[in-house]
Each structure stands twice: as C-alpha cells, then as structure tokens.
Design a protein that fits this description.
seven-stranded mixed β-sheet; 16% strand; 18 strands; alpha+beta
Length: 666
C-alpha cells in the first residue's frame, strides 16, 4: 500500500474539474468532480485517522491522482459520468442492474405502426410506456388493449408475408387486428387506431370509458344487443388496464420518485415513474456501495440513471447525427419535469442544469415534505427497505452461501472445523449508565433467536463497569462461567431457568435455558481492546473457544494479542455473515438499553413524589401502562388505582402540574 503523501500533488488549481485516482497497475479506482479541485483533493490527504474508512482505503490503494479542468459544474458532471462508464472504478458507487425491463412500445415512426413489448433501446418517433417489472403484466395489458384498439402487433417478417400472400394472421381473423396487411383498413385508418391507443395511454382513460359506456346503453336501448355486448367487453378491458395505473396525484404531475435505504455495505434503490398523476412503472435494484453519505449516493444515482440518455459518440457524421436525434427524443420522454429524492444532493443546481439540457426543458429536483407527495415518497422508501431486507434474507437463506461463509471463516481463522455455533456480544449504555450487554446466536449461519440473551452489567461495586472493555470481559466471563457451572457441553435437554443472580432476562416470555451449547466462535463488537478483554475471560476459565473482534473502522477482524488484523474482501460471504452478526447484536443491545433507561426514568419521576412507595408505583404503572398516561390522568382516574386515595391523587396531580398551575389561587 502506498503512502498518500508520496503522490500528493502540489500544483492543483482552484478551478472546477474532474479527478481520478489510479492504482499501481494503472487501473482507475475512483472518479470524482469538484467545484474547486484544490480544496477537494486536499481533503484526501489529511491525516488518515480523520478520513472515512473507505476513503482511507482508497487513498492507500492509489499511487497517483490526475485531473482535468472544465469550464463549469455541468461539464464536470458529463465528464465524470463518461469516466465512470469507461473505467468502472471499484470505489465508486455503481448502480448496476442485471435486468432489462420491458416496455410497451407503439412504433409511430413506421408507416403501419406496431404495438409490442420490447426491451430494446428507445428510438425516436416511437412512444414507450413503462418500465414494467414483470413481462406478463405488460402482455396482459396489451391483450386487453388489442380488444379495443385492433392495431398491428406482428413482426416485420409476418407483416410482409401477409402482404405477399394476401392472407391475414390469426389476430386478423379473431378481430384483434384491423389487418392493414390485406387492405381491410388503409394506412391512415390504421394510424388513427394507433393514435387512439396512444391518447388513451397518455390520459386517464375516463373520457373513452364514459363514451363507450354511453354507446353501450344506446345500443341496448335500440335492442342491438350484439353491439352492446362488444362495447361492454371493451369497457371491461379498458377498466382492467386503467386499474393497473392507479391515480395517485394530480393529472399534471410527471415525476420520478426515488427511495433509498442503505447500510454499511449495500444500497437498495426503488423508483416509481409517475406520468399524468399515475404510476406507470416501477424499478429497483440493490448495489454494493463504498460510502455512507445519503446526498452523495443520490448524486451518483441520478448521474448514472439519467446519464444513459446523454448523446454518445457515433462512427461517421450521419450515424452520429441519428444517434444524437434518437437520444434527444428518448431523453425528452424518459426524463420527467420533476425528480423527487429522499436526500438533497449537494450539487443539486448543477444536476438540474445538466438534466434540463438532456431533456430539452426544465427539470427540478425536489424533496417532498408533506401531503400526498410525501406519503407517496414514504411508500417508495418502504419498498426500498423491504427490497434490502428481502435481498439479505435470500442471501442468508442460501445454503451454499452460508456454507461458503463458514468455510471461509474456518480457513481465515485457522479453526479445526467450521464454526457452526457463533455467539456475538455487544455493550450498550448512556454515558456509562444503564449498562447492558447482548448475546446473539447464529447456528449454521442462521439466527437462533430463542438463544438470545441480555446481561445487566454490574461491575465490581454493583454500579456498572468502568468502561466498555471491562463490561465486555464481565459479560463473557459470566457466560462462560455459566457454561462450566454444571451442564455438559453437549447437553441440550436441561430447561432449568437460570438463577436470578445473573440478572439475565427471559426472551419473549420463554424461560431462559442454561447455556448448554458451547460456542465454536465468539465475536465481540469492537477492536483489539475488546478482543483482549474477552480473551482474558476465556483464558482464566480455560475455555477452548476462539475469540475475534469486528471493528467498524475498516471492517477488519482482530485476534487476541495480534499486531495486525485479518482483512477479508468486502464481497466475502464470511465478512457479510460477521457484519450481520454484529448488526444484530447491536440492535438487540440498543433495544434492551432503551427499555431499561425508560424504566429507570419512569421510576425516577415517580420516586420524587412524596409518599409514593414502590408498591404504589407498581400499581400505577400496571394500571396506566406508562408515565405519560399517569400524567394525563384525572383525580378520579388516579383514585381507581389500589392504594391511591384522595390525598395521594391530589399530590400526584400537583407534582405533575405545569409550574404556572402551582401559582394559581386555590
């Protein structure tokens, strides 16, 4: 790894531009842009301890930095996107999607327009609707539309063959096509059918549905029941298509709504496409990330999603002109007037200018704050959250992936066998008070929540441990002492509750069992100090258990009394498993700590009321459920609690009354 100071530049201009870091093999590993290259690049060469862990890894991996000065931020955006597409830098956020999404297309650019389902690049002169997430959904919509708008849906080869033989295809015989190939309708009449379909798809559809409903009633009144039945089927088909595109906003709203959820490794993105107030399509993907800044992720996201509509260089002037024309048409239809984001990017104005130039009209980037727009944005975010959860569950549920993770841990840590039972510990507190520890258990790579445990950290004097390392040592010592206190390591049948003196609480109402299972691996949340503290407890109790720590700084794995950590690849299944363990133990510790702190605050508030002892406090909390409801209770409601008389009820009311109430004349 290179020392960043060895390649730190000294002649960087204070001008807008784009820069790139390269490694010793000449590969570009990061691309960025800046209003001031001098100020931005200086940030990468500050003391390493001040850098974000992944930024620190990047600058130590690189051996050189180069830059190009540009005239404006908009030019910087364009060049940054071009470089990212060209070099695919490993430290940049890459929103890759391995799917091509289907669209419903109407080829108005052809003499005889065709309606079809396509995944190909958009072409000028055609109308596109979508993207759809499922191809069956767009085919189902197309099937309903052809009942009402019988236009051509066949390929060019089938159409040419029908013209030569003067025989229509099956759709022509079942009235799903007006059969312009055999002259049943003229080219102008067929184009009008296509334009009617486009008009329906572009609007709400209510006008056409109402018109056909009225025609159906008139036909029925005239006893033309065959025509009335056809119109009825048309109305049902149109309503089926309209129901798939629910109106969510005013008909004048055209917007792409982005939702983003991310953790330390991955980001989940969802986008809803709203056109004319209706959700026309949805798209989502999960990508590996290298930074944790929401605005920065959104900036990269918008640049990569819409950068695909920037004109590309073609071979030859004619081809280049056609390419530019096609891309301009696509950008005008694909980029909406508004883009709603959960985090406002720092380069918002430059992005708006860049997108406006691509679209050929104004584009606004907004963050909805209230009303229907904010509610819909919350829905998109919820989809992103659920997509990330499903992604993790699918990965966790993959037996092959779990087996790979456990085998990598065995090899990386030099264990005799794969760690089938892993226990992870974390400490949570508020400035040293209300200290609690958590133990979560994974068996065969899956969470075993019935074995989760909480620990109340007591310390040597009963008032808590002096610091996190002492708390960690106490928790590990108590857990291993319990293991060695009389239960065989392979005995899983003893359901005797643990003694109360350990202060270990039951989970979900299930009485806790003895710690009968011996862990194959103990993971602590922290670096070398926490690992060494846990190792002391293991050594004193002569427990044959490997202890490691996972530090958040660089996601490195620390072993007891080792100078250097073990570094696993960020895409390693073993590292993902350890991170899942660490995150789960942290969540479990935090939730218990908050509950304990809340109880302590409630007791503290009630302790200050004269004459209100522990028994009456318990009775009040059992009756009302929370301190807030006790404060809101009336005198008569308080007196309904056992042991609370008129005098005590008055005392409680006066204690919780606002200060101004105390000064009122009686």
């Amino acid at each position: 790894m290179a020392d960043p100071q060895s390649y730190r530049p000294t002649d960087v201009p204070a001008l807008p531009g784009v820069y790139r870091f390269s490694d010793d093999d000449g590969r570009v590993i990061y691309v960025g842009k800046a209003k001031s290259l001098k100020a931005r690049l200086a940030n990468y060469f500050q003391p390493p301890q001040h850098l974000h862990p992944r930024t620190r890894q990047m600058v130590f991996t690189a051996v050189r930095v180069q830059w190009v000065v540009v005239a404006s931020e908009t030019e910087a955006l364009t060049l940054e996107y071009a470089w990212i597409k060209e070099f695919a830098p490993r430290f940049n956020v890459m929103y890759r999607d391995d799917k091509s999404y289907p669209y419903l297309a109407v080829t108005l650019s052809e003499e005889y327009p065709r309606v079809m389902v396509t995944r190909q690049a958009h072409r000028a002169g055609n109308k596109y609707y979508g993207p759809y997430t499922k191809v069956w959904a767009v085919r189902e919509s197309l099937d309903q539309l052809l009942r009402v708008f019988p236009m051509r849906s066949c390929s060019a080869g089938v159409f040419a063959s029908a013209q030569r033989t003067d025989r229509a295809c099956l759709n022509g015989y079942i009235d799903r096509c007006a059969a312009p190939c055999v002259g049943r309708v003229s080219a102008a009449e067929h184009r009008q059918i296509a334009l009617d379909m486009v008009r329906f798809l572009d609007g709400t559809g209510e006008e056409l549905i109402n018109a056909k409903t009225e025609q159906m009633r008139q036909a029925a009144a005239a006893q033309d029941f065959e025509r009335a039945a056809r119109l009825r089927d048309d109305v049902i088909a149109l309503q089926a298509v309209v129901e798939k595109n629910t109106v969510v906003l005013d008909t004048g709203v055209d917007a792409d709504i982005f939702g983003l959820e991310f953790d330390e490794l991955e980001a989940s993105v969802q986008v809803f496409f709203v056109r004319a107030g209706r959700i026309r399509g949805q798209r989502g993907w999960v990508s590996t990330i290298e930074e944790l800044d929401g605005p920065g992720l959104i900036s990269q996201l918008l640049m990569q999603v819409y950068g695909a509509y920037a004109p590309q260089q073609g071979k030859g002037k004619q081809r280049q002109a056609r390419s530019v024309d096609d891309v301009a048409h696509t950008a005008a239809t694909a980029i909406p007037r508004e883009i709603w984001v959960p985090h406002m990017p720092e380069d918002r104005h430059a992005l708006q200018q860049w997108l406006s130039e691509l679209r050929g009209g104004p584009v606004k980037i907004r963050k909805p704050q209230r009303g229907k727009k904010a509610h819909l944005a919350d829905t998109v975010h919820l989809n992103a959250v659920q997509a990330l959860e499903r992604h993790k569950l699918e990965r966790a549920g993959d037996l092959t992936e779990r087996s790979r993770a456990l085998e990598e841990l065995r090899q990386g840590l030099g264990l005799a066998r794969a760690p089938l039972r892993i226990e992870c510990y974390d400490i949570s507190h508020t400035q040293g008070t209300h200290q609690v520890g958590s133990m979560v258990v994974f068996e065969d790579g899956l969470a075993k929540k019935s074995d989760y445990r909480h620990f109340i950290v007591r310390g040597e004097d009963g008032n808590g441990a002096r610091d996190d390392t002492a708390a960690m040592e106490e928790v590990i010592r108590r857990r291993l002492s319990r293991l060695a206190s009389g239960v065989a390591a392979d005995d899983a049948s003893d359901d005797e509750p643990m003694s109360h003196e350990l202060d270990d609480e039951q989970i979900n109402g299930i009485p806790p069992r003895r710690f009968a299972y011996r862990p194959d691996l103990i993971v602590v949340d922290g670096g070398q100090p926490q690992v060494n503290a846990a190792a002391r407890a293991v050594k004193d109790l002569e427990a044959d258990v490997q202890v490691i720590g996972l530090a958040k700084r660089l996601e490195e794995i620390w072993l007891p009394n080792q100078v250097f950590p073990v570094i696993l690849s960020r895409s390693s299944p073993a590292l993902r498993l350890l991170q899942q363990l660490r995150d789960e133990s942290h969540r479990f510790a935090i939730s218990h700590h908050r509950k304990k702190r809340s109880k302590a605050m409630t007791r503290s508030a009630l302790d200050s009321i004269p004459g209100l002892g522990p028994a009456k406090q318990t009775a009040l909390l059992k009756h009302f459920g929370s301190l807030t409801k006790i404060k809101e209770a009336s005198r008569s409601e308080l007196q309904q609690v056992s042991g609370i008389g008129p005098v005590m009820a008055k005392t409680i009311l006066e204690h919780f009354a606002p200060p101004e109430e105390h000064n009122k004349p009686q």
